[in-house]
Amino acid sequence: MDGKIKIDIVSDVVCPWCIIGYKRLEKAISEMGIEDLVEIEWQPFELNPNMPVEGQNVHEHIAEKYGSSLEQQKESQQFMAKAGAELGFTFNYYEEMRMGNTFDAHVLLGYAKDFGKQTELNLRLITAFFSEQKDVSDRAILKQALLDVGLNADEALSKLADENARKEVKSKENYWRDLGVNSVPTFVFNRTSAVTGAQAVAVFKQVLTELVEARTI
């Protein structure tokens, strides 16, 4: 089989397990030395599609959505911070952290894909939210993220009022949901197999090894 290994990552920019999972996948790819054989595309998934513009305190939101106590949340945050640190990513949780609406971010990630900057913008937004305590639903923050990765910020932001661009995000969200993706991160390999969750590096290596070997058959 010729061509690259296509990996669709269904995720949200405010999902902590998505960045941990991606970093583990990245480590697997790097340690195998197959960067040139892999093509990654990020697919939209909103953890909180009905989140209002003003957002919601993270502790309140998680308590309402998952029933987690404050103590359980803090333990989970400490666990994620440790996992992130092992992968070179900083989780900087704080008391007034707010969960925002990420639809605009997904529109901009669609724009960035056309310029080969999708992964770069995604990581910039995730870092802004988790490491820099910034609101990724704030258009000023979005504009700065676009500038940081070398994109035309004004052109990109104009997509937020483009009905076709917004419909495309919705269409992609529906596509993956209709295929049964209901939690993130979900990693889809060559549109034929998938793993869900922030799997261990060894798991990603096993999947990738099988896909690399299949290319030579």
TrEMBL record:
The lineage of its organism: Bacteria, Pseudomonadati, Bacteroidota, Flavobacteriia, Flavobacteriales. PANTHER family: GLUTATHIONE S-TRANSFERASE KAPPA, THIOREDOXIN SUPERFAMILY PROTEIN. One of its GO terms (molecular function) is oxidoreductase activity. It comes from Aequorivita flava. Residues 7-208 form the DSBA-like thioredoxin domain. InterPro entries: DSBA-like_thioredoxin_dom, Thioredoxin-like_sf. It holds the Pfam family DSBA. This is DsbA family oxidoreductase.
